[in-house]
Amino acid sequence: MPTTPNTPRGSLKVYLGYAPGVGKTFQMLADGQAAVKRGVDVVLGYFEPHARPDTIAQAQELEIIPHRKIEYRGKIFQELDAEALLRRNATIVLVDELAHTNVPGSLHTKRWEDVQVLLDAGIEVWTTMNVQHLESLNDQIWQITGVRVRETVPDGIVRQAAEIVAVDLTPDALHNRLKRGAVYKPEMVEKALAGFFKGSNLGALRELTLRQAAHEVDLRQAFYDETRALQAPKISGVSGTTTPPKEHILVHLTAESTSAMLIRRGRRAADYLQADCTALFVSPTGDISRLSSEERSAVEEHLLFARSLQIATQVLQGSDVAKTIVEFARRNHVTQIFVAQPQHSFRDRLLGRNNVENIIRIAQDIQVTVVADRTQRPGA
Amino acid sequence: MHVSKLARPTPERLLRQVQAEENKQFGSKLKIFLGYAPAVGKSYRMLDEARRRLERGEDVVVAAVQGRQSEEVQAILSKLEVIPPKEGVNNQAIDLDAVLHRAPAVCVVDPLAARNPPKSRNEYRWQDVQELLRNGISVLSSVNLLHVEEYKGKVQEITGKNTTETIPKSFLLSADEIVIVDVPPDLCLWRQGEKLTATGISNLQERQLSELRELALLLTAEVVDAQLESYFDSHGIERLFETHERFLICITPHSNAAAMIKSGERNKERFQGELYAVYVCEPGRSKRDQVTIRKYFDAAEKAGAKTQVLENDDPITAILEFAREQRITQIFMGHSAHDTWRNRFFGDPVLRLIRAAEGIDVRVFPH
Lengths: 380, 367
Hints:
A: 14 helices, 41% helix, B: Rossmann fold, Rossmann fold, 6-stranded parallel β-sheet, elongated, disordered N terminus
């Protein structure tokens, strides 16, 4: 069925877990089956063909839309078939593993892009993901586990979700499942237990998941209150506290590698404070053409990364970096400037080359947050 | 493994360690299923686990179950051995002697928060549970946020519901395992017999339940954090990462403490974190300064901060020592009042702090 531009966007529901095997897919399928029993038109858009037996059992009463088969380097891969799902036009589509990267030759690079197409067509989507795939948590996850997660989902995608469900299981129970071979094949279990699945990792990831879920629930209350206030301004709200003036966070980008971490930290802080967020790069020419090719590609990458996390970016002209930043901040009512501590020498400091210290000195009227470099894992 | 000097353990941490050791000694474990409201599915999750354990060969009995039961719950119960509770006038008590005599490996006691009839051995059911644990019997139980003493007031504020049957939060913190049974408010209300609404928050009732849900998620996170802490303590490992924010305000008589406290309160609330405020006592402070500091400390405490006076000749060293001990993630500090060239290059306290605060963010506040 073709959709008109007036079709309201479909709702998104995310089942959030902290590790493979906690039961996200199981919970999603069980809820899907319950919905079918209520008479809702639910189909299964994607789920892992090698899923665990008890999970497969949960899928039995659900209509499965065949996957798209794609040949890549002589092997057949299965991906979600967005076109077939649009044709089927069910009320709710269940899609496993939101963070998945599609095989080359697919319609989209990422599965979350496929999901956008379904949502745009007015279809409700339920999906699963683990907390470690959230882009803004990437540095923290690395600090905890020593693993740089490559398959990430931009925070904005999760933020669109109308609902987040925390799927919880104790690490002990997860360990038992692993040892019984309910999560991975027996030959992989030992490695998993010593690596990603070790006790302290799971505890920390679990705590992060619960806190993230609480935060997401909190944000949705605020959204509800805002829309309600717009609809009926005279009804007194649930929590009658006055809202402080909106914060605006400015992230100072450089060619240094700490910029990625700064962007993630800025994104998270802006989310928690419900603040606006802008990223700024300053160069003497007002563009990045005069930079060395190495610096240019680093800055380009950082600007692109900021935009992918829905942070507005600007490149400004200025020979005095600190002055340019502070003046921009004053003009745009910035409440907090985020900078990374540069690894400068004492000599640089004497020559006034440390932009961070210069910004602090000039910005006597704005908060400046010097973000610590958490990309180092001491002792790991 | 990276082992280094550990922070001084707090009394609570020591107590937790002792409790953990005790349970290990008895070979029993307490597992609690927490829900934010009735009908989230706690009892089902708990009994389903009991069933699976039985099927795996564990000796499981049921000593108490909730009054109203869904068909699914009844189906599971029919497969489990039940030790009938003792009937009281208004309430039931588990038959403690019968359970101890039967001596199963695992016992289901549901719900956890219940007051026993008069003349029972223990006043509260959670004390019965302690007795089972001490006798080597593991316990599966469930509790609603309303029935956690420290949350009773908040839940009542939101829903108007009240209760006299509660368990102390410390009992939750002493559990070996806790599981949150999370379900969206619309489904929870639907199970209570309301009409199903669209995904997400769509009315005031769901909005209120959502607040309870947030509290329950954060309470579970707190228990998980406490367990993580015990894990690191008992393994002698230093924790090298943080799972939530801890803000530290450095108060001086001439800083804009009011702005820092206000921002600290908001950040604590928004980030669901913790707030601390310190003052480094330098010899020779005037009487007037002391009065000012007392005033700021009062304001900080009102904003939910834990306050402490530190004594050291070097404020920066004192602040950083405290920050590392309390695992602070962000330090709030006011601009130095005297901006001299000497200060700027050799001793400006703000810049010195920034250079030395490895791994900790520093936020510099205007005057």
